[in-house]
Amino acid sequence: MAAFHFTTLEEYYVGTLKLPVCNAVSDGSLPIIALYIVTGILGNGIWVTGICDGTWLNIEGITELTLGQVLVSVMCVMSLFIIIGK
Q1: Is the distance from CB of 67 to CB of 49 less than 8 angstroms?
Q2: In whole angstroms, what is the distance from residue 52 CA to residue 27 CA?
Q3: What is the DSSP letter of 23?
Q4: What is the pLDDT of residue 51?
Q5: What is the torsion angle, in degrees rounded to the nearest 10, for the CA atoms of residue 45, residue 27, residue 9 and residue 35?
Q6: pLDDT tens, residue by residue, 32-45
Q7: Buried b vs exposed e over 34-66: b needs ≥16 C-beta within 10 Å?
Q8: How far from 81 is each of 19, 37, 41, 74, 84, CA to CA, in Å?
Q9: 51 near 65, Cβ under 8 Å?
Q10: Do 19 and 26 touch, CB atoms closer than 8 A?
């Protein structure tokens, strides 16, 4: 949703919507739909499932990384690479 929001802002301020061949607006829809289906089938609890030890981060209160935390972190890093690549 954020990618669509920012491209809409780009269209508003620049006056045109320029999307590359591989873009988050259309290509990102399939993974989002897949995540919604997984959540619908397995329930919300799937995202709080612990997958690895988080004490190495040295952040108070984090002892275990959950699937949801890792997914959001990966998406943020991917977004940074896309922004830097432009």
Answers
A1: yes
A2: 29
A3: -
A4: 92
A5: -10
A6: 888 889 999 999 99
A7: eeeeeeeeeeeeebeeeeeebeeeeeeeeeebb
A8: 16, 27, 31, 11, 5
A9: yes
A10: yes
Q: Of all helices (H) and strands (E), which one includes residue 52?
A: strand 50-53
Looking at residue 61, its pLDDT comes to 86
CA distance 56 to 22: 35
User: In the chain, which residue ranges form alpha helices assigned H by DSSP?
Assistant: 2-14, 24-27, 29-42, 67-85
How many CB atoms sit inside 10 A of residue 24's CB? 20
Secondary structure (3-state) at 74: helix
